[in-house]
Structure formats: structure tokens, C-alpha cells
Amino acid sequence: MPFGECTITLQDVAYQLGLPIDGEAVSGCLTDFENLMENGRPAWEWFRELFSELPPPNKVKQMTVHFTWFHERFRVPPANASEEIVRIYARAYIMMLLSSQLFADKNANQVHLRWLPYLASMEDLGRYSWGSAALAWLYRCLCHGTNRNVVNLAGPLQLLQSWIFWRFPSLRPSGFDVFEFLLASRWATYLPTTDAGDQRVVSARLCLDRFHDRDVSRLAFALRSSRSCLL
């Protein structure tokens, strides 16, 4: 790994996913977001205007819609779709992308309505710094993942995995040395196997999982001693 780099940066987000890292901030309240909508419009009323229909009650949970409804309802647009129908399908795709990929949480099977204000004007989507927001969300999820009671990791994990393979060539699967922009696009055809590289990753993870407090102390002492010898 190159010296001086130890974490994912905005440059990595731009190179790996091609998301804009300049522009207006992606922000808003996650709990009372409905009060911030245009003219205090109810969220479900706005949903009907943007998607021309409402999901069935069994696919709704508070302010979220089950992912399967979006996937089944807006999977493929009709062949003779009008421009407005295409826009509806595009909104649905973006909703799924935001909720299940860039800003996924542990309820990745739910699509949250908090993204409606951004979809109301699709022409303005490019004004926002989506890369900065995705990176901030990944940092938050990684921080939360250090809790000993947390067993699952959320966030834009495709960014994390692609960054690891890019920065740590020894962990990169064989046959993926040729790259292009976007860097993460080359993993679209990657299927995990039980090759030697994957076995090294598994072995390294097992070693880390078996670490105890005393092992960490010994490792820190060894690092300090080796640094003193170099100086």
C-alpha cells in the first residue's frame, strides 16, 4: 500500500464510482423530513405524483416501501413508453440505487421516502455532491461497525471492496489486472471463488478474529521496537 494513504478519500470515490464530489451538500432530517417537503406536502401525496400510484398497504412500513415492490413494478419499462413513463421508471431506479447501494443500511430491503425531494426535479440531481455524502455514510457505518455488538456492516460496501482490491494488489483476485474508468466497473463480472487469493484473505481474517488484548499489546511493542532500531 502506498505510504501516506490509509483510508478512502474523495478522490477514491470519484475514481471508483464516478460520483460528483463537488456541489451542494446532500442533507436533511431523517426523522421529520416530511416537514421539510415543499409546502408541507404529505409524503405519500408526493409519492403518488412522482410515481402515478401508491404501493399496496402490505408493502409499506411507516415511511418506507418494500424493495421488492419497486423491483417488480418498475423492472422493465414498456416498449412504447412515453417520456413521462420513462421518467417514472428512472425515478424508481434512482430510489432503489440510493436506498440499497449508496446509502444502504441494515434494512436494505426497504426504500425510504426521504429521497423524494431530490427526485422531484431530476434535472437538479447533478447539483449535489453525492460522492461526499456516500463517503460520509461509509465512515459512519465503519465507525458503528467497531461496536462489539454489531455483526453486520452497512453502507456503500461496493466502494469499500473495490478500494481494497485497488489499493492492496495482493488481495486482488487474479484476472482483473486490466482496469478502466470507472474503476469499480471491472468487478461487474467478478464471481467469488475459492482460489488461493481468497484463501489468503480468509486466513488473514481468521488471524485477526483470534487476536486478544495481549496480542495487540505485543504487536504494538514489536512495532515500537522495530521503529527504534530503524532510528
UniProtKB/TrEMBL annotation:
GO BP annotation list: meristem maintenance
Aminotransferase-like plant mobile domain boundaries: 1-216
InterPro entries: AminoTfrase-like_pln_mobile, MAIN-like
Leader sequence residues: none
A Pfam family reported for this protein in Swiss-Prot or TrEMBL: PMD
Name of the protein in question: Aminotransferase-like plant mobile domain-containing protein
Organism listed in the record: Arachis hypogaea
